[in-house]
Design brief:
This protein is 0% helix and 41% strand. It has 239 residues and is mostly beta strands.
C-alpha cells in the first residue's frame, strides 16, 4: 500500500487440485467501488501443495515451494510491472509442502524451511534443512540507514538518517511475518510519504492509522532509485 491513497491490494497464487488453480494467480484491489479478483499471468510451474509467498522491500513478490518431489525454481512477480508476469529464478534443493515456511529477514534475504513434499503427501517430522534465497539486490552496493527512531505514532513525521538521502526513492515498512502451513497472514508492505530531505537525512511521514498499519513492529527499509533496499531497522508503530 503506497501513499497518498494507500490502496490495499491482495495477491493469491497457486492452489489445490481444482482445474487450473495450481498454476494461476489473481489480484484484488479492495479500494475499487466493486472489488473483484482479476487474473494475473500464470505461474511457470503448477503449485498445488501450499506454496509460500513473501513480500520483498523492492515491491516484488517471491514465491516458492508447493511442487511434489522437487524444490523447483522460485518465481518473482514485480508488482510495478504485473504484465511481465512471474519470472523463474533460483532452483531450491528441497521440496516444500504442508508445514513449509518462508519469511523475509532484516537483510532482505528470504529463509525457507519446513516439510518436504514427497509424492504429494503430508510429511511431518523428517529432517527439514533450511535454505536461504539471496535476491538480486543482496550483493549490490546498498543504501544504509544510519539511525532511525525506535518508534513512531500514526501520522507523525520522523527522521531517517542515511548518507544516501539524495538517491532514496521510497521508505517502506514491512510487517514481520507469522508463517505456517504455507500461510503468512500478517504480511503487509506499506510505503511512507517522504516529506523532505537533506544531504544525509529524510523527513518521513508514517501511515495515518491502524487500518493502514496495524500497531506493532515493522522492518523499516529505504529503497533507492535503482530499487535497491537497505538492510532494515526495526521500528514500532503506535496509535
Amino acid at each position: 500500500m503506497l501513499p497518498p491513497d494507500y490502496k490495499p491490494r491482495v495477491l493469491i497464487a497457486g492452489g489445490d487440485i481444482l482445474p487450473n488453480a495450481p498454476q494461476t494467480s489473481e489480484m484484488i484491489d479492495l479500494s475499487d467501488a466493486v472489488p473483484a479478483w482479476k487474473a494475473l499471468p500464470n505461474l511457470n510451474q503448477p503449485r498445488a501443495h501450499q506454496v509460500n509467498t513473501v513480500l520483498m522491500p523492492d515491491s516484488r513478490v517471491f514465491l516458492a515451494g508447493g511442487i511434489p518431489n522437487t524444490g523447483g525454481p522460485a518465481e518473482i512477480l514485480d508488482t510495478k510491472n504485473l504484465a511481465a508476469g512471474w519470472v523463474p529464478c533460483a532452483v531450491m534443493k528441497y521440496s516444500r509442502g504442508y508445514h513449509s515456511t518462508a519469511i523475509l529477514l532484516a537483510d532482505g534475504s528470504i529463509l525457507m524451511g519446513g516439510d518436504q513434499d514427497i509424492n504429494g503427501g503430508w510429511k511431518s517430522g523428517e529432517t527439514t534443512p533450511h535454505e536461504r534465497y539471496f535476491p538480486w539486490y543482496y550483493f549490490r552496493a546498498r543504501p544504509v540507514i544510519t539511525t532511525a527512531p525506535p518508534g513512531v505514532a500514526h501520522g507523525a513525521t520522523f527522521t531517517v538518517n542515511t548518507p544516501s538521502a539524495t538517491s532514496i526513492a521510497e521508505v517502506m515498512l514491512v510487517r514481520p511475518g507469522a508463517v505456517t502451513h504455507g500461510f503468512n497472514q500478517s504480511q503487509r508492505l506499506i510505503g511512507c510519504e517522504i516529506t523532505g530531505r537533506g544531504p544525509t537525512s529524510l523527513q518521513v511521514k508514517s501511515p495515518p492509522d491502524g487500518n493502514i498499519a496495524p500497531p506493532g513492529y515493522y522492518l523499516l527499509f529505504v529503497v533507492d532509485t535503482a530499487r535497491v533496499p537497505s538492510i532494515a531497522k526495526w521500528i514500532r508503530v503506535t496509535p
